[in-house]
Amino acid sequence: MNNSTESQATLGVSESVGRVSCLVTTPPDPAAVFVLAHGAGAGMRHPFMTQLTHELVTHNLAVVRYNFPFIEAGRKRPDPPAIAMATVEAVIEFAHNQFQGVPLFAGGKSFGGRMTSHFMAKKNPKNIMGICFFGFPLHPPGMPGTDRADHLHHLTCPMLFLQGTRDALATEGLIREVCSRLPKASLIMIEGADHSFALRGQNLIPELARHTAAWISSMG
């Protein structure tokens, strides 16, 4: 975070949806920018989101994180996919305009990553070089299945999956099976971590940021 700057903005999604907040954290000369979406249970200022942002910035990545409308309005129930995807699209367009000429990546934690991938599968924006999932929610707890990954076959960009081996929302065997069928997918399993990347009090967020930065750098 040394010499980085942080600013807040509000973005209009649509007349019916309204506006959402975003935070832009920028190192002096970013090598790339990452549009980072939060999960279903907390917004852009959640400690996980804040620390992941700070760690990514130490790797010379700018980060644009934002709230989905349900968080902005103080609701607990996540937005329907159409609203979530419209929000992802608005923030990606904002980031593209703010960082013209800088390689652009997107993704997010759990719900945020999945909604980003649904948007990308539908629109396949050419300005996104890759998507990173911090715990892809493959199925509900105790209900193993792969239907939630069906849309991933429509993505044309590289994908990075960072998953815990104890993730109740993506059993290891199933997430490995899904990734093995996606030609542009890379999978990194974090031994012992759960869906929140908790592991006996260890802080795994720096490791997540290192893997993300190395993956982004490999596409340079």
Can you tell me about this structure?
- This protein has 220 residues and is of the alpha/beta class.
- The protein is built from 6 helices and 10 strands.
- It starts with a strand and ends with a helix.
Protein traits:
alpha/beta; globular; 220 residues; 32% helix; 6 helices; 27% strand
Low-pLDDT runs of 5+ residues are none
Order of helices and strands: EEEHEHHEHEEHEEEH
What characterizes the major β-sheet? 8 strands, mixed
Helix proportion of residues, in percent? Answer: 25-40%
Q: Average pLDDT value?
A: 96
| Shape assignment | globular
Enumerate how many helices there are, as a single number.
6
Radius of gyration equals: 16 Å
Report the span from N to C terminus.
22 Å
Strand order of the largest sheet: 1-2-4-3-5-6-7-8
Structural class, please? alpha/beta
Number of β-strand runs: 10
Strand-residue proportion: 25-35%
SSE inventory with pairings:
Blueprint: E1 5-14, E2 18-26, E3 32-37, H1 47-58, E4 61-66, H2 69-72, H3 81-98, E5 104-109, H4 111-123, E6 128-134, E7 159-164, H5 172-180, E8 185-190, E9 198-199, E10 202-203, H6 205-218
Helix pairs in contact: 1-6, 3-4
